[in-house]
Specification:
By secondary structure, the protein is α/β, with parallel strands linked by helices. The protein has a single domain, classed as UDP-N-acetylmuramoyl-L-alanine:D-glutamate ligase, CATH 3.40.1190.20. Helices cover 33% and strands 24% of the residues. The chain has nine helices and 13 strands. Helix 4 links the parallel strand 8 and strand 9. Helix 1 runs parallel beside helix 7 and helix 5 crosses helix 6. The longest helix is centred in the C-terminal third of the chain and has 16 residues. The chain starts with a strand and ends with a helix. The structure holds alpha-D-ribofuranose (RIB). The site of alpha-D-ribofuranose has 16 residues, from strand 2, helix 1, strand 7 and helix 7.
Length: 294
């Protein structure tokens, strides 16, 4: 089974800050790191590093070479990323001393998707393949519909969350991957168990993976409910942790179908990512995750 990762690629500008900038305040940053990121790229890299068969898709501008080179670095095959005559997406990321972030995203080429591109990159997709989507590109709903026409499994990470999500054909989704905030926004519930129950009631055919920050993660499918806590590490930067979790979880589920094992592997991969600055380039290889778990 191949996973078509169709999502955003961003040039991430990481500013190390003493605290997040407040209204009316001007604040110096001690350090700037310019690194590849974007939820789509991070999740594609995580899938590749975890050993899944991935088809990375996405749109960049003429300034997006660094975004392509990260895919070369991790040995991506079948990349279907195309250039458009506009700037690449970028993100301005403040990182505080506790490793927490605040992010501004500029869409750039990530909002240049059209039906022709979706149909082209999914032309050879077959029943049983999956598409992995986030909410950082335009026309996500159209892509869900095309994927379903082909009998694909649709995995949706509704991040960043906005009200447009309710206009999407969410009944097409086979697996929701959300954090607590996104899960609450989707269901109106705050307690994780209630979020899962409400998702199940609204979308009975969909499975759900809910990440809970420091409280770990919980996954629900037809076979049951599975939980895992976090591995304690020194947190440097949490950017990309959720994307890494998603990629490693999907890859492990693909390989073994064992939710408990997949949660454990994904938790370890995310723990490694938060101990480093950056997103896509911080994602560990499968061997490093195995060593961590030993
Ligand atoms: O999920 C992390 C990502 O969110 C960053 O890499 C940034 O580009 C934003 O899209």
């Amino acid at each position: 089974m191949r996973i078509f990762s169709i999502g955003s690629l961003n040039i991430d500008y990481f500013y190390s800050m003493s605290h997040f900038v407040r209204a009316g305040e001007t604040l110096s940053s001690a350090k700037l790191d310019i690194l590849p990121g974007g939820k789509g790229l991070n999740q594609a890299v995580a899938l590749i590093r975890a050993g899944a068969q991935v088809v990375p898709c996405g749109l960049i501008g003429e300034d997006g070479e660094m975004l392509l080179s990260v895919l070369d670095t991790v040995g991506a095959k079948n990349s279907r990323i195309e250039k458009r005559d506009m700037p690449s997406g970028h993100a301005i990321i403040q990182v505080d001393p506790a490793g927490q972030n605040g992010i501004i995203v500029f869409h750039g080429a990530n909002f240049a998707y059209d039906e022709a591109y979706f149909r082209k990159v999914l032309a050879d997709a077959a029943e049983g393949d999956a598409v992995l989507l986030q909410n950082e590109i335009n026309d996500v709903g159209l892509c869900m519909n095309i994927a379903k026409e082909k009998g694909m499994r649709v995995v949706f990470n509704p991040s960043p969350f906005d009200d447009n999500i309710f206009d999407l054909p969410l009944e097409r989704v086979d697996l929701f991957v959300c954090n607590e905030i996104e899960g609450a926004a989707l269901t109106g519930k705050t307690d994780p168990e209630e979020i899962l129950a409400a998702l199940n009631e609204k979308y009975p055919d969909a499975d759900a993976l809910l990440t809970l920050g420091g409280a770990g993660a919980v996954y629900r499918d037809k076979t049951g409910i599975y939980r895992h806590g976090v591995f304690e590490v020194d947190v440097v930067d949490t950017t990309g942790a959720g994307d890494t979790f998603t990629g490693f979880f999907l890859a492990a589920m693909n390989e073994s179908g064992d939710p408990a094992g997949a949660l454990r592997t994904a938790s370890a991969a995310s723990a490694i990512v938060v101990s480093r600055i950056g997103a896509a380039l911080s994602i560990p290889a499968a061997e490093e995750v195995k060593e961590f778990l030993q």
